[in-house]
């Protein structure tokens, strides 16, 4: 019996050490990379509010959890087999103060957590526009296998593998999917939102200062899932204008043929090998001009009242991407005679 109690005591102590160690390690690792990827290292008002909410919830929860972690080892030690000073009370069965604490404290915690959750849900509504003296930058997002397509309708450009926007200016994302359900997340800036074919969801974000933040899909969707990440880059207004001009000058036309290549199951790197020109960066695709109604066409083609043929459905095993001869080829580069 004594060996069993000692083993239980050691297990509880080891669990406590692991829990504390994991929290400390997670806190330290949030600042070890040059690209922010956690709401614990927030770079915008939404992520900062989420971190505050998380800390408050954790603090309230620890009111119930901490006594368990502390007193279970103490009780095991106090009432160990060889401790003759421990009182043995086989007839004890009720204590009013103890009952009040055991039931009252958890009930109060539940009420407090429910109230906090209700207020946070309203304050962090992803559909609610952010209050700002600047108009939002509208970006349309399409989830594909295994990449994200970003459409800038006001600028007439599109990108794959890179989301850029001005720091200090709200960004209003409208999202959908042209394949299976996916989950969009830029943890250091905003929360997570699901995207599904035929439906649109919205997400607001804002970066306090220029920087790079990791965006990703958190919903498993096949073999290329692990590669469906992208940098979200906050820039100064001047740098953003220059970036838009570079996309317009270096991009290729986003038409039915080039979109068909993107819709085929492939990672951004694989699509880059097919569509990229030498003037594009190694980890992104640029498109200009784009079809003004492309996002609406993608969404509404699921509203026709009939199934989409498998060979025309991105994500389907029978999907037929454009033939090689239909793929737009970059213009041949010629040297200017000296």
Question: Could you name the key traits of this structure?
Answer:
single chain; 338 residues; alpha+beta; Immunoglobulin-like; 2 domains; 7 helices; disordered N terminus; disordered C terminus
Description:
- The protein is an alpha+beta fold.
- The chain has two domains: 2-84 and 97-123, no CATH class; 137-324, Immunoglobulin-like (Sandwich).
- Helix content is 38%, strand content 19%.
- The chain is built from seven helices and twelve strands.
- It has helices at 2-29, 45-78, 96-123, 237-250, 256-263, 268-275, 294-300, and strands at 137-144, 147-152, 157-160, 163-166, 171-177, 182-185, 192-195, 201-205, 211-217, 229-235, 252-254, 285-290.
- Strands 8-5-1-2-3-12-11 form a seven-stranded mixed beta sheet, sandwiched between helices. The chain has a five-stranded mixed beta sheet with strand order 4-10-9-6-7.
- β6 and β7 form a beta hairpin.
- α1 packs antiparallel against α2 and α2 (45-78) packs antiparallel against α3 (96-123).
- The longest helix is centred in the first third of the chain and has 34 residues, at 45-78.
- The termini are far apart.
* CATH fold annotation of the largest domain: Immunoglobulin-like
Shape: elongated
So how many helices?
A: 7
Mean pLDDT: 87
Largest pleated sheet: 7 strands, mixed
CATH class of the largest domain: Mainly Beta
Any idea what the CATH superfamily of the largest domain is called? Cupredoxins -  blue copper proteins
Element order, helices and strands? HHHEEEEEEEEEEHEHHEH
Q: SS-based structural class?
A: alpha+beta
Distance between the termini: 94 Å
Question: What share of the residues lie within helices?
Answer: 25-40%
> How much of the polypeptide forms β-strand, as a percent range?
15-25%
- Supply the number of structural domains: 2
Number of strands: 12
**Poorly predicted regions:** 1-9, 26-31, 324-338
Q: What is the CATH architecture annotation of the largest domain? A: Sandwich
Spatial order of strands in the largest sheet? 8-5-1-2-3-12-11
Q: C-alpha Rg, in Å?
A: 27 Å
């Amino acid at each position: 019996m004594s060996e069993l109690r000692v083993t239980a005591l050691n297990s509880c102590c080891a669990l406590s050490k692991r829990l504390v160690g994991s929290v400390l390690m997670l806190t330290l690792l949030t600042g070890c990379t040059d690209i922010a990827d956690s709401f614990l290292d927030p770079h915008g008002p939404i992520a900062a509010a989420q971190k505050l909410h998380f800390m408050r919830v954790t603090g309230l929860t620890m009111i119930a959890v901490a006594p368990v972690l502390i007193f279970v080892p103490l009780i095991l030690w106090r009432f160990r087999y060889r401790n003759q000073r421990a009182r043995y009370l086989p007839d004890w069965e009720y204590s009013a103060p103890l009952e009040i604490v055991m039931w009252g404290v958890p009930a109060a915690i539940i009420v407090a957590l429910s109230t906090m959750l209700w207020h946070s849900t309203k304050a962090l509504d992803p559909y609610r526009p952010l209050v700002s003296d600047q108009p939002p930058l509208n970006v349309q997002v399409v989830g594909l296998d295994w990449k994200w397509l970003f459409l800038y309708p006001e600028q007439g450009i599109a990108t794959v593998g890179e989301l850029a926007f001005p720091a200090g200016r709200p960004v209003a994302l409208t999202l959908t999917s042209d394949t299976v359900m996916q989950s969009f997340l830029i943890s250091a800036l905003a929360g997570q939102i699901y995207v599904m074919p035929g439906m649109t969801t919205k997400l607001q974000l804002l970066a306090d200062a220029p920087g790079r933040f990791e965006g990703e899909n958190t919903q498993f969707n096949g073999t290329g899932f692990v590669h469906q990440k992208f940098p979200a880059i906050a820039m100064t207004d001047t740098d953003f204008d220059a970036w838009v001009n570079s996309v317009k000058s270096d991009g290729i036309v986003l038409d039915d043929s080039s979109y068909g290549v993107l819709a085929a199951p492939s990672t951004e790197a694989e699509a880059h090998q097919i569509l990229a020109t030498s003037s594009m960066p190694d980890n992104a695709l640029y498109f200009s001009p784009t079809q003004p109604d492309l996002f609406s066409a993608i969404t509404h083609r699921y509203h026709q009242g009939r199934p989409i043929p498998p060979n025309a459905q991105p994500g389907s095993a029978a999907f037929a991407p454009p033939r090689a001869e239909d793929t737009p080829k970059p213009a041949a580069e010629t040297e200017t005679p000296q």
